[in-house]
Write a structure and sequence with these properties.
The protein is α/β, with parallel strands linked by helices. Helices cover 48% and strands 13% of the residues. A four-stranded mixed sheet has the order 1-2-4-3, with helices on both faces. It is globular, with a radius of gyration of 15 Å.
Length: 158
Amino acid sequence: MAVVRRSERWREALGDDGPLRRAAEAAVAAAAPDLPADCEIAVVLTSDDEVRGLNRDWRGRDRPTNVLSFPLVAPGAAGPLGDVVLAAETVEREAQTLGRPVAQHAAHLVVHGVLHLLGHDHASDDEAARMEALEARILATLGIADPYDAPAEATAPW
């Protein structure tokens, strides 16, 4: 599991990478317990500008978004799982709107992104409900309140 900082904004917004590493590991442990704990995932912390370019080039949407996932292999196949890319300005803005610490919101987005790498999706209402419930269970193991509930304080020291 690697965390790659491509924007200095993340240094002041996040501090250390521990919460994001734990979030990725918790997502893999809960959603794909047969995968090795040290499976390869890169969490790329970058800017809205870079994410906007990726979103435009890969999804046809010329705007930044909070998180993008780029699977490298099919879920369950051998090899690196892929990349989860977060946009600093968008994540900061959303965290402020939600009244949550940036690290907590970023951890949620890492869980969300890793679940996409593992084949989960939210295209239909049923899929979205299953994915959101799984995210909430994973985040609870990290001491993070259900992000789909009303804003609440985290029990972990974020």
